[in-house]
Specification:
The complex is a heterodimer of chains A (255) and B (244).
Chain A (H helix, E strand, L loop, with lengths): L1 H4 L1 E4 L4 E5 L8 H16 L6 E5 L16 H19 L5 E5 L2 E3 L1 H8 L2 E5 L3 E3 L13 H9 L1 H10 L3 E2 H6 L5 E3 L4 H12 L4 H15 L3 H15 L3 H11 L10
Parallel strand pairs in A: 2-3, 3-4, 4-6, 5-7, 6-9
Antiparallel strand pairs in A: 1-2, 7-8
Helix pairs in contact in A: 2-3, 5-6, 9-10
Chain B lengths: L5 E6 L2 E6 L10 H16 L5 E5 L5 E3 L4 H4 L4 H20 L4 E5 L2 E3 L1 H8 L2 E5 L3 E3 L2 H4 L7 H9 L1 H10 L2 E2 L1 H7 L4 E3 L1 H16 L3 H14 L4 H22 L1
Parallel strand pairs in B: 2-3, 3-5, 4-6, 5-7, 6-8, 7-10
Antiparallel strand pairs in B: 1-2, 8-9
The chains are: A alpha/beta (255), B alpha/beta (244).
C-alpha cells in the first residue's frame, strides 16, 4: 500500500511534493521500497521539474527499528538501502527536503541523499538507534561526515542525541531555517524558484559536483571543463544568454 | 609590457594586484585572464613581495565571469579552450609559492567567485554580492567552481548556490564559510592591508610550505599527507638552522 506511506501532490509548477511521514509499524524495507519506486517513477516524468520531500510534525520516514535481523539480512538491507539512496541522489531533478518535526535514523539518511535540507525551529536531527546497537546503514555515516565534518558526525552518531534546528543550521546540516509553520510554503517557493533555472545546467552541475567530490581536484576540473563545453551545444545556453542580454526572463526547455 | 586591465603595487612586503578592467564589473575576458597570469608569474619572482592581495578595490566589483555578449556565440570548442585558460590561471594561483588573499570589495559573481576561491583566504566588504548565475544562463561554471565550492562550503550549500543562481550577502557568505572575514566598508582596506602585512612578515619558506601542505591535504590520504608534513617540517627546520 504505497499510498499509505507516501502521498504525492504535483503542484501547478511541475513540483511533486512527496509526503512521507512513515510510522513505527512500517519496516525499513517497506519504506525503502516505496521511496525507490516513487522516485524512480518521478525521475522518468518530463513534466515533473523538481521534487520536494517532506514528512509531518510527527516525523519524516519513520520506521521500525531493525534490531532483530540476521547478519545476512542486515547486509542485504544495507545494500538495498544504499542503492535506494544513490537512486535518490541521481534522480536528475532538483530535490530538496523540508522538515518540521523529527528527522532521525532512516529519515536523516534520506534527507542526506537529497540536494539539501531546509527546516523550521521545531525540527530535530540525529541517529538515535545507536542506543539499540545500530549505526546508519544507507550511506548516512559517509554523507554526514562529508557534510558536517568528521568530528560533528562522530558526536552525532556516538551520542545518538538529537540536535535542534538551530544547531543543525550552525553546523551546516541544514541550509535554511524557517519560522515554525512556514517550512512547507517557503520550501515550495524555493524549489519553484530553482525550477525557473535551466534544468540542463542544474542536472549537469549537480552530477559534476557529485562526481568530482571524491576524486582529485585536477581530474575533477577536467571533468568540469568538458561538461562546461557540452553546455554550449544546448538550447538552454543560447536562450539563457540571449535572455540575459535582452533583459528578459529565459524560457528554458532543458535541451 | 604594461598592464591594461590591472595594476600592481608593492608595499610593506605585500603585492597588490588591483583589477581595473575598464568596466564596472571587471569581466574576466581572455585578455584579463592573460594579464593576471603574467602578473602572477612576475610576482612569484619578485623578492620584495611575501604575500599577494588580489582585489578590484576601490571599484564597485571584485570580478565577474566572461562577457555574456561574447560568450553567447561560443561554440563548444571555444568554451573548452576558455575553461582551459581560466583553469590554468587558477592552477597558477594555487601553486603560487606565496599566500594569495582575495579582498572582495563588492560584486563577485560567476567566474569572479571562482577566482576568489582559487585564492587562499577571502576577506569581504559588508557590501559583498556573491553568487553563481550559471543555471540562469543555461550553463555550469567552467572555472573549477563545481569542485572548489563544495570543498569550501560543503556539497549542500554548493548545490543551493548553483541551483538558485541567487546573489548572496556578506552575512550569508560568512555563515556558509564562503568568506573568512567581513569588514565594514570604511575599515575594509585598512584591515585587508594589516592582515596581509602580518602574514607577509613571516618567513616565505614557512608560508609556502604551509600552503603546499594544506592544498595537498585536500587530495591526499592522511598517512601520505602526514609523511609529506614530516619531510617538509624537517626540511624547513634544517633550512632555518642554516640561516641562523
Amino acid at each position: 500500500m504505497p499510498e499509505r506511506l507516501c502521498t504525492i501532490q504535483p503542484t501547478v509548477n511541475g513540483i511533486a511534493v512527496l509526503t512521507i511521514p512513515g510510522n513505527k509499524t512500517v519496516s525499513a524495507r517497506e519504506l525503502l521500497d516505496v521511496l525507490h519506486h516513487q522516485t524512480s517513477a518521478l525521475a522518468g516524468k518530463s513534466d515533473i521539474k523538481g521534487l520536494l520531500l517532506t514528512g509531518s510534525e510527527d516525523g519524516f520516514c519513520n520506521c521500525q527499528i531493525e534490531n532483530s535481523l540476521s547478519i545476512h539480512n542486515a547486509a542485504t538491507l544495507s545494500s538495498f538501502g544504499q542503492k535506494v539512496m544513490f537512486s535518490v541522489e541521481k534522480v536528475g531533478k532538483p530535490c530538496i527536503v523540508a522538515i518540521d518535526g523529527e528527522c532521525s535514523g532512516l529519515g536523516l539518511e534520506v534527507a542526506l541523499a537529497c540536494d539539501f535540507i531546509v527546516a523550521s525551529q521545531t525540527a530535530s536531527f540525529g541517529f538515535p538507534d545507536i542506543a539499540v546497537g545500530l549505526i546508519p546503514y544507507c550511506g548516512g555515516s559517509q554523507r554526514l561526515a562529508r557534510l558536517v565534518g568528521k568530528s560533528k558526525a562522530k558526536e552525532l552518531i556516538y551520542s545518538g542525541d538529537l540536535i535542534d534546528a538551530e544547531e543543525a543550521h550552525r553546523i551546516g546540516l541544514i541550509n535554511r531555517l524557517y519560522p515554525h509553520g512556514q517550512t512547507l510554503a517557503q520550501a515550495e517557493e524555493l524549489i519553484t524558484h530553482i525550477c525557473t533555472r535551466s534544468p540542463n545546467a542544474i542536472r549537469i552541475g549537480g552530477e559534476v559536483v557529485n562526481a568530482g567530490y571524491d576524486i582529485d581536484l585536477q581530474t575533477a576540473c577536467m571533468l568540469e571543463r568538458d561538461a562546461f563545453a557540452l553546455c554550449f551545444s544546448s538550447f538552454d545556453q543560447r536562450e539563457g544568454m540571449q535572455a540575459f542580454l535582452e533583459k528578459r526572463q529565459p524560457q528554458f526547455k532543458g535541451e | 609590457m604594461p598592464y591594461k586591465k590591472l595594476h600592481i603595487e608593492v608595499m610593506n612586503r605585500v603585492a597588490y594586484i588591483l583589477l581595473d578592467a575598464g568596466s564596472r564589473f571587471n569581466k574576466l575576458s581572455i585578455s584579463t585572464i592573460r594579464e593576471l597570469k603574467r602578473a602572477f608569474t612576475h610576482l612569484e619572482e619578485d623578492a620584495a613581495a611575501n604575500a599577494i592581495v588580489l582585489s578590484g578595490y576601490p571599484g564597485e566589483s571584485f570580478a565577474v565571469g566572461a562577457d555574456i555578449g561574447q560568450m553567447v556565440h561560443f561554440s563548444p570548442h571555444d568554451a573548452f579552450h576558455f575553461a582551459d585558460l581560466g583553469q590554468s590561471l587558477f592552477d597558477q594561483i594555487e601553486s603560487c609559492s606565496k599566500p594569495v588573499i582575495a579582498a572582495l570589495n563588492g560584486i563577485t559573481m560567476g567566474g569572479g567567485c571562482d577566482l576568489a576561491m582559487s585564492c587562499d583566504i577571502r576577506i569581504a566588504a559588508e557590501g559583498l554580492r556573491i553568487g553563481h548565475s550559471g543555471a540562469k544562463l543555461g550553463i555550469i561554471t567552467g572555472f573549477c567552481g563545481t569542485h572548489k565550492l563544495p570543498r569550501i562550503v560543503g556539497k549542500n550549500y554548493a548545490r543551493e548556490i548553483f541551483m538558485t543562481s541567487d546573489i548572496y550577502s556578506a552575512v550569508a557568505a560568512l555563515q556558509m564559510g564562503l568568506v573568512d572575514m567581513v569588514h565594514n566598508e570604511k575599515e575594509f582596506w585598512q584591515n585587508v592591508s594589516a592582515f596581509a602585512e602580518r602574514i607577509a612578515s613571516h618567513p616565505l619558506s614557512s608560508l609556502s610550505a604551509a600552503k603546499r601542505l594544506i592544498n595537498a591535504a585536500e587530495d591526499t590520504d592522511l598517512r601520505t599527507g602526514c609523511l609529506l608534513e614530516r619531510e617538509t617540517a624537517t626540511h624547513i627546520t634544517a633550512l632555518s638552522g642554516l640561516h641562523s
